[in-house]
């Protein structure tokens, strides 16, 4: 196998020496440059698998090296070395497309995994294939659609696969945030590690710490065995924090510390363990507003939201609906061993006009139900049972809503709440987590309301 080569750009001789020594011990060729200019010269002479550059250089900065490389040698990942405590620089570099950053003083135990990940990066073509699901096993996630918004999302995913930057995915419930996160993981140098998906809203507050950090036997009553938490389970892989806005403030502080120090300590343990985890977070709420409202820490938001990826709502890309319908029906047919169902023109039109509050997840559910109800393997409009009111029905409902259906206000409100909850549960096939999202409330709040209204 060809030896890998790394270009080190730093004007301090002792740092260059430390880096060369470590890399040589790892069996990697290391060349050095002391300025932006020298780096540009070196790049002309041989291809590199990674460039490690200091942020501050005598004739420019690390971003200049980064920009030069992405312009002329787009496949070479660049990691920047930032001054102690300079988060701004690190974030700026990641936003500009750096693969990762190392904070000074450089610690060998952080340098080695960084270099190893960079050298393991799949070729860009492979990352792109992973992003469109081409290399995936049957049943692996795929992002369907050919609309400009989906094509852009796919391109971002393939680009972000080649970086360690934290990505923050926004989009409505069921719009493919988790699919995007999985694809980013699958196309990355972390693909051999685990993808750990955590729904932050579904973990009871008193279990948060033990779930995230793990515990040693005897740490608390009931801790019968040692257990690792989500962070360690995602070691060398990706941790997907879904509904990150639901993390309680106390937990946000602890998570920020873990992210900064790249270390975790289990409950009841005296020692810390180094972690190497990429964090991708998502929410269907507006985290910026939560920051303004004091519900989410600005500093954590800043660390998570280095790069934002927006997943479009299905109603914004109606042109993709026919293609998605076709592919979903084909998938169902493959699973059941039947011929793919067809869909009538009226039914397709109705779908294109529908609002899809639950997005692609809802589309899948509607089609699955329609398949069970239709005859002759043809889905007609009446098989779809679209719950959404037409504009006329909507205004009639509004007229009705002006009164309280002859009930005391309190009972009337309970009734409206019950109806909304039942509808959301139906739309999500009784998946409480998804129903809570659809309703724009937390899982905890839904559980409380179900109890209060006596819905089983
Ligand atoms: N563009 C898409 N192409 C194919 N399938 C999609 C697409 N978007 C979403 N899906 C499907 O919709 C379902 C929900 O997707 P996913 O879990 O990624 O959504 P989400 O945005 O994470 O939802 P939530 O906010 O509720 O967690 C999955 O079955 C997924 O396969």
TrEMBL record:
Domain Response regulatory span(s) in chain numbering:
5-119
Question: Which molecular function term from Gene Ontology is one that the record holds?
Answer: ATP binding
UniProt xrefs under InterPro entries = AAA+_ATPase, AAA_lid_NorR, CheY-like_superfamily, Homeodomain-like_sf, HTH_Fis, P-loop_NTPase, Sig_transdc_resp-reg_receiver, Sigma_54_int
Source superkingdom = Bacteria
Which Pfam family would be a valid example here?
Response_reg
Q: For the Sigma-54 factor interaction domain, which residue ranges apply? A: 143-372
Residues recorded as bearing 4-aspartylphosphate in the entry:
54
**SUPFAM superfamilies under this entry?**
CheY-like, Homeodomain-like, P-loop containing nucleoside triphosphate hydrolases
State if ATP-binding is listed as a keyword. Answer: yes
Which keywords does the record carry? ATP-binding, DNA-binding, Nucleotide-binding, Phosphoprotein, Transcription, Transcription regulation
Q: Does the UniProt entry include the keyword Cell inner membrane?
A: no
- Set out the biological process GO terms recorded for this chain's protein: phosphorelay signal transduction system; regulation of DNA-templated transcription
Q: Which PANTHER family match?
A: RESPONSE REGULATOR PROTEIN PILR (PTHR32071:SF100), TRANSCRIPTIONAL REGULATORY PROTEIN (PTHR32071)
What's the protein name? Answer: Regulatory protein AtoC
Q: Which organism is it from?
A: Usitatibacter palustris
């Amino acid at each position: 196998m060809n030896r890998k080569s790394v270009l080190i750009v730093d004007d301090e001789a002792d740092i260059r020496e430390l880096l060369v020594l470590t890399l040589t011990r790892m069996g990697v060729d290391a060349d050095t440059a002391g300025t932006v200019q020298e780096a540009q010269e070196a790049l002309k002479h041989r291809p590199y698998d990674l460039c490690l550059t200091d942020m501050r250089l005598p004739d420019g900065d690390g971003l200049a090296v980064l920009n030069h490389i992405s312009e002329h040698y787009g496949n070479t990942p660049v990691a920047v070395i930032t001054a102690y405590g300079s988060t701004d620089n690190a974030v700026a570099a990641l936003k500009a497309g750096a693969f990762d950053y190392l904070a000074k003083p450089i610690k060998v135990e952080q340098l080695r995994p960084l270099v190893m990940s960079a050298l393991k990066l799949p070729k860009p073509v492979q990352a792109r294939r992973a992003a469109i699901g081409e290399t995936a096993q049957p049943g692996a996630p795929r992002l369907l659609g050919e609309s400009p918004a989906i094509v852009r999302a796919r391109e971002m995913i393939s680009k972000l696969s080649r970086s360690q930057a934290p990505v923050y995915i926004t989009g409505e419930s069921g719009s493919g945030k988790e699919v995007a996160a999985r694809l980013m993981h699958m196309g990355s140098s972390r693909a051999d590690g685990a993808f750990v998906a955590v729904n932050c809203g579904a973990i009871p507050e008193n279990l948060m710490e033990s779930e995230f950090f793990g515990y040693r036997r005897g740490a608390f009553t009931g801790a019968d065995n040692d257990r690792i938490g989500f962070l360690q389970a995602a070691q060398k892989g990706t941790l997907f924090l879904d509904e990150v806005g639901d993390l309680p403030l106390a937990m946000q502080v602890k998570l920020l510390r873990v992210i900064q120090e790249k270390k975790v300590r289990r409950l009841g343990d005296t020692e810390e363990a180094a972690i190497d985890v990429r964090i991708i977070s998502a929410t269907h709420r507006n985290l910026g507003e939560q920051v303004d409202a004091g519900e989410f820490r600005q500093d954590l938001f800043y660390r998570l939201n280095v790069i934002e990826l927006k997943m479009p709502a299905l109603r914004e890309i109606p042109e993709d609906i026919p293609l998605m319908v076709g592919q979903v029906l084909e998938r169902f047919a493959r699973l059941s061993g039947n011929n793919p169902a067809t869909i009538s023109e009226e039914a397709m039109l109705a779908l294109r006009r529908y609002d899809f509050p639950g997005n692609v997840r809802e589309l899948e559910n509607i089609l699955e139900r329609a398949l069970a109800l239709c005859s002759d393997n043809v889905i007609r409009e009446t098989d779809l049972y679209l719950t959404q009111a037409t504009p006329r029905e909507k205004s009639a409902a509004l007229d009705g809503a002006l009164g309280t259906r002859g009930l005391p206000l309190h009972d009337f409100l309970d009734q409206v709440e019950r109806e909304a909850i039942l509808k959301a549960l139906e739309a999500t096939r009784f998946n409480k987590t998804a129903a809570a999202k659809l309703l724009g409330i937390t899982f905890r709040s839904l559980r409380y309301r179900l109890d209060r209204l006596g819905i089983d």
